[in-house]
Amino acid sequence: MNDIWQGIGEALRLVFSLDADLFEIVLRSLHVTVTAVAIASAIALPLGAWLAVSRFRMRRFTIAALNTLMGLPPVVVGLIVYILFSRSGPFGVFGLLFTPTAMIIAQVIIVTPLIASISHQAIRDLWADYHDLLISLNTTKRQRIVTLIWDSRRSLLTASLAGFGRAIGEVGAIMIVGGNIDHVTRVLTTAIALETGRGDFALALGLGFILIALAFIVNMTIHVLSKTERERRW
Amino acid sequence: MSQSSSIFPLRLENIQVRKRGNVLLNDISFSLVGNLTTVVMGPNGSGKTTLMRLMHGLERPRQGSLNWAITSEQARSKQSFVFQTPIMMRRRVDENLYYPLKLVATPKQETDLLVNHWLSATGLANKAKLPAQFLSGGERQKLAIARAMITKPQVLFLDEPTTNLDGQSTREIEALLRKVKPDGTCIVLSTHDLGQAKRLAEQVVFLNKGHLCEVSDAPQFFQKPQSSAAQLYLDGDIVE
């Protein structure tokens, strides 16, 4: 219990002393995660909508595969990205290993199935409501997808926030592809892992509390900006 | 939005519709010429909704043919459908009206005029900025009719539009439909409300158990129906 109090104290000290290293790590964490979630959402939301409105031969298999990929082990993703971007790998020529870009790529791979699967569920329910109307209005498939994404945007926000939650707390993959290099690829989660390994539990816990606070602030900000839970809006 | 070429007549020949092994419509043949308000009548389960959906293209026949005067693709864009339970988009009332106009890339100025016209015509102008979800059942149905009419279709299908509504809302919706008629829109409406059919119908299509019993002019149908099923129905008896 004492360690937890020390951790809270350490978190407050880091924040109020305006620790430069801490802010650098926090900003990098946000940069990597927000970029990854934005890219993943741009892929996953239309994919979820397309799966909801399309009928094709392997549809059930595709949805089952997508749901399975939600549980993709980050360490395995990290390892695959590492192999692909290592010097001898097919994308080694880009020199992206141990850069924030590699970390973003790994996170995109991890969170895209999660966002796509949740958005598919949300859009499928709305499609059931809208089906006859949109067919009756003679909409094209593209118009249907755009309409469904727009009208279920608040549910899709939850999908993206779930992706953010997974990405901001992710450590396995970004440790492998980022390397936890100080001032280059160190983020909150890898810093926590490092300090835990060093035995500085108070600092590790302090960083952990900051990570939780950061995730909470981002979630609250997005909810406030999107006016969810207000005036019974959708 | 184009009114250029008429989509009528609509010809149905030997139509059969099956779903999950059940025959919902069988051997249906008749024509609609387009200048008459047609009411599709029949007891529950007679196939009224299936016939309406079939004519609009939401159902496909297992057998037979259904042909408009123009291609079915062109015909679809000149029809609108109002469902028994109105489907409200998760948008504001006015945005529900803007939506079909945006689909056909209507110029902004014309869009605003049309939306304002239909908000006034339905009495929903003071609720334009509310989410459509907040409307009452009658208001939802009026909004659904306005949304269907805003693109000036040649045919408006209404599937039992007043089934769950009170007398006042029913009156308002019937008044709205009377306003639509002079605009050149043909109304095809299904109902099992005999009073409503008498008030609105110029032609009646009567169905029973998925079979077409008769297609008659309204006065003739209500005075002297040709089929025994229709006679029983009009007499308020149970139609077997």
Task: Explain what you see.
The complex is a heterodimer of chains A (234) and B (240). Chain A has 234 residues and is mainly alpha-helical. Chain A is 77% helix and 0% strand. Chain A has a domain at 22-183: MetI-like (MetI-like fold). In chain A, helix 2 (20-53) crosses helix 6 (141-151) and helix 7 (153-168) packs antiparallel against helix 10 (201-226). Chain A is globular and about 65 Å long. Chain A starts with a helix and ends in an 8-residue tail after the last helix. The mean pLDDT of chain A is 91. In chain B, helix 6 links the parallel strand 6 (155-159) and strand 7 (186-190). The mean pLDDT of chain B is 92. With 240 residues, chain B is α/β, with parallel strands linked by helices. In chain B, helix 3 (93-103) crosses helix 4 (108-122) and helix 5 packs parallel to helix 6 (167-180). Chain B has nine helices and nine strands. Chain B has a domain at 10-88 and 153-234: Rossmann fold (3-Layer(aba) Sandwich), CATH 3.40.50.300. The interface between A and B is medium-sized, with 17 and 17 residues.
Keywords:
heterodimer; A: 234 residues; mainly alpha; MetI-like fold; 10 helices; B: 240 residues; alpha/beta; Rossmann fold; 6-stranded mixed beta sheet; 3-stranded antiparallel beta sheet; 9 strands; globular
Count the DSSP helices of chain B: 9
Low-confidence stretches of chain B: none
Q: Strand share of the residues of chain B?
A: 15-25%
Which CATH architecture of one domain in chain A is right? Orthogonal Bundle
Report how far the terminal alpha carbons of chain B are from each other. 43 Å
Radius of gyration of chain B over all CA atoms, rounded:
18 Å
Topology pattern of chain B, helix = H, strand = E? EEEHEHEHHHEHEHEEHH
| Biggest beta sheet attributes of chain A | none
Q: Specify Rg of chain A, calculated over alpha carbons.
A: 20 Å
What's the CATH class label of one domain in chain B?
Alpha Beta
In terms of DSSP E residues, the strand content of chain A is under 5%
CATH uppermost class of one domain in chain A: Mainly Alpha
Helical stretch count of chain A?
A: 10
Taking all residues together, what is the mean pLDDT of chain A?
Answer: 91
Order of adjacent strands in the largest pleated sheet of chain B: 5-6-7-3-8-9
The CATH topology of one domain in chain B, please? Rossmann fold
| Biggest chain contact | A-B, 17 and 17 residues
Can you identify the CATH superfamily of one domain in chain A?
A: MetI-like
Helix/strand structural class of chain A: mainly alpha
Low-confidence stretches of chain A: none
